[in-house]
Design goal:
With 174 residues, this protein is mainly alpha-helical. It is built from 8 helices and 4 strands.
């Protein structure tokens, strides 16, 4: 028999162990995740630039304040809403990655807002071009940046999320 009884609960040392998000993140290639995250980041930056600047182009001199405020509000809400509710921005959708908490669920708007606040410092294209985020990602086994650590989130490939213990991803793909 391959099981050991530990006070009424059987343990089979040969049974496959449930995988956690942290375990999955720890197995990822640093180079692959750096490229995926960098590519997704630039897709999102291009989209955000379009959201901010395209609405004001039709106005010759001064765009109406409402247009300016609406485009800025959309830019500010972009990451907290898309990553918080669906785990993915357009950049993450294209690169096949998803933001999740340690339990496999989407982070929610609050955690996504924390990630976004730190993104302003470590991923800012005008401030070292995302170099701080890349260095942090390469220096830890779970391929997380400072925003991930602060928010308790991970960025992993969607294909890896599907292979986690079913209870962890219940409802994620519904």
């Amino acid at each position: 028999m391959n099981t050991v009884d530990f006070g009424g609960s059987a343990f089979n040392p040969y049974a496959p162990r449930p995988r956690s998000v942290a375990t999955v993140a720890g197995r990822l290639s640093a180079g692959e995740m750096l490229l995926r995250r960098w590519g997704g980041c630039w897709i999102d930056f291009i989209l955000l630039a379009a959201v901010v600047f395209l609405p004001v182009l039709p106005f010759s001199d001064t765009p109406p304040d409402a247009v300016v405020y609406a485009s800025l509000a959309a830019a500010v809400a972009y990451f907290p809403v898309t990553e918080g509710l669906w785990g993915r921005s357009l950049g993450k959708l294209v690169t096949g990655t998803v933001v999740v908490r340690a339990d496999g669920r989407f982070p929610g708007i609050g955690r996504a807002a924390v990630r976004t606040l730190l993104r302003l410092i470590e991923v800012n294209p005008f401030f070292l071009g995302g170099l701080p985020a890349g260095i942090v990602l390469l220096c830890n086994q779970e391929r997380r940046r400072l925003g991930d650590f602060a928010a308790g989130t991970y960025v992993i490939p969607v294909s890896e999320l599907k292979s986690l213990q079913p209870a962890l991803v219940e409802g994620v793909f519904d």
